[in-house]
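FAQ: What does a multi-protein file look like?

Like this. Sequence, then tokens, then the next protein.
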Amino acid sequence: MSPGPTRYATSRVDDIKSSFQLFLLESIVEIILAMTNLEGGRVFADTWKALDQVDLQAYMGLLILAGVHRSNNEATKSLWDAESGRPIFRSTMSLQQFHVLSRIIRFDDRATRPFRWRDDKLAAIRNVWDRWVERLPLMYNPGPEVTVDERLVPFRGRCPFKQYIPSKPGKYGIKIWAACDARRSYAWNMQVYTGKPVTGRPEKNQGMRVVLDMTAGLKGHNITCDNFFTSHGLGQELLKRKLTMVGTVRKNKPQLPPALVSTRGREALSSKFAFTDTHSLVSYLPKKNKNVILMSTLHKDAAVSEAEHRTPQIILDYNRNKGGVDCLDKLTGTYTCKRMTARWPVAVFHNIPDVSACNAYVSGEESASPSNCPGHSPPKTGAETEEMQAMCP
């Protein structure tokens, strides 16, 4: 792949707005309109006035605008307040109409959901989600470094597959597997984790399955992942697809040599290496009795930095590329359009314009200015990165 916007994107994108519209196709909008009008007719009967595309665009525009103002935790009523609110909210629609749309918006037929729910826990938003995910790889080719990690969409209401991840800011929410470009944090693929399969049996080798799903279609890239995903078997499977891997390894993996796991008698800042025909392992002690183990199918030698900490090159490369998904989380968390809701399909839906806005900035900016594509210019400076984050809704 040639890194940067695809030919499909460059032929259709003039600016960030046109790039954003490519992620939310008319077919997706039609599904939301049809299902929302169906629910509106069921709740309000003859008094319901059917929505059109203009109504839905106005509603989504206000959600995004609230995110631009970083007002996702601000009471909706204050956004419409005549004194302290913003005039554009009152000019677009009334507060009552906004509340009605937030209550009525649907993404599937409620009457047929129980039958689909038996085989698919994501049935309430499956059609919209799958059509949106299909758009992600059509707009942008990731660079040589791709990060696979988990995201957490904050949600504390009732959901059959809600997760608790204490390391995340939101703690509780809906887990989403993601594959992102390590440099620009473009979300190239996503998958909602819906818990145990319908059969009820725990999934084996879940980390391997997730990485293989997330990287399907890639070739010639290096995949960076953490110790939940990294394994010897994953490295072998990725090599069959012409992909390499760099990742941290849990110390209880049975395939690890005991000499790499043990820290007895080893000095701080020391490194030990192990090699096979396809894999490289390194054990590094950043300080006494603290052991960090990484596995790589990209590196073939025992290169160590000449700097003071004598860090192995494998670890330097891992640290450089591990933050692709984390950066996306930071941007979408800062400028999120999500509003308080008790319905998990709406929480998943709010994630769609959040990620679409960040993706649209990356693909739209580079489509309009090809000289900014990776490989054609030096990496962005810190000031330029801050400017990009400030502009990205």
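And here is the next protein:
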Amino acid sequence: MGRKIKRKAGVKKQAKRIAPSSSSSNPAVASGPAKCFVLGFGIGWSCLSFDVVHDQLGLVRSEFPHTLYGVAGTQADKASRNYIGIFKLSNISGKKREPIPSSAIDGDSDTDVDSESSSDGEDEETNEDTKPILHLKKVAHAGCVNRIRSMTQKPHICATWGATGHVQVWDLSSILNSLAESATPAPKEDDVIHRQTPVKVFSGHKAEGYAVDWSPLVTGSLFLVCDCNKSIHLWEPTPSNWNVDVNLFVGHSASVEDLQWSPTEADVFASCSADGTISIWDIRTGKEPCISIKAHKADVNVISWNRLASRMIASGCDDGSFSVRDLRFIQEDSLVAHFEYHKKAITSIEWSPHEASSLAVTSEDHQLTIWDLSLERDAEEEAEFRAKMKEQANAPEDLPPQLLFVHQGQRDLKELHWHPQIPSMIISTAIDGFNVLMPSSIDTTIPSSTDTTVASSEP
């Protein structure tokens, strides 16, 4: 799969209404019957990868205004111009306002923030007090950033996978602290690119890669890195650093595209590959996979392990399809759902951290979709809604009942993340910047993981 940015569940429910959305900076479809808050911003260069940084503002919060912290890695036109962007987006009020004109994506240090809420109501008056505030600081990074991840237990510790073939770990505590203490951005602060030495650099890979993952269960933390040369390295924490195991995990016959630790088993992880397989590994039993299955007919680009229903794993394919499997039946018929809605490669997939049946997907077809896999078909409601949709948007006739929300308007979408502490908030990155979405049609009820049933679906 080409990763570079190109330049120049509970009791089964009846199907809810799908809510199409468009980015405020580039409307693509008419607004649907449900409201959606959309906020757009940029940090200069386009970003292939970012991560939400866990904060201390509350484990679960739903009241506006919101504040979020994040880290992102750039894809600049020259290797020497790249950086890690550490940002705080505050005063997210959720109120409709006129967008601030966005700057071109040309590597300038100017940042932009704009937002829109699709609503049947009247526009709210624009004023300075309701505008979101973007604080941005930059740390120089050698080469483009293919993937960046913040450690859950120590959010100031971040790892980057660089296009140079180096994996680096950074301590960003001083920068995050300064963002937390600052109410307003200092003049021209985002013009400055700080020089900082990483706390760990590993150059043992023979090719670049696109996936890293910190263990959610091991303080320290266990760390996995994979590359396009079929290699998977394990980093084990020491009191002051990490030891990188030189003995590779071997089992895939092509590039390892993504990997993820189990949310419940500290020694277990999953990986996916361009060979079309998903493998499950146990680091206690050796360097070969415990189980490998043929999951897709083409490259498996991304996977996501459900943190609320750990038996479920989702995978996205280069042919635009994505699937959900039940790991309890992995050696039998484990396929729970398979969708072929998207027309181009799946670039990101992630289960909601607050609703075990909800899944978000991005694709190279410039769409971000949200799915509720607990929904089942209701012919009468579906026919009524399809008729209304035809009046408001040119929706296809064969929409799956599990498709809850469609967001269009971003170009060349690359990665998405649900905010782990703000239910229903999704952040996505694309060639034309970031969007923050909060669809009102997404159920923010936080269920028990034992109360969720995923409804099966045919292609």
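Q: Is there any per-entry metadata?
A: Some entries carry free-text notes. For the entry above: The longest strand covers residues 83-92.
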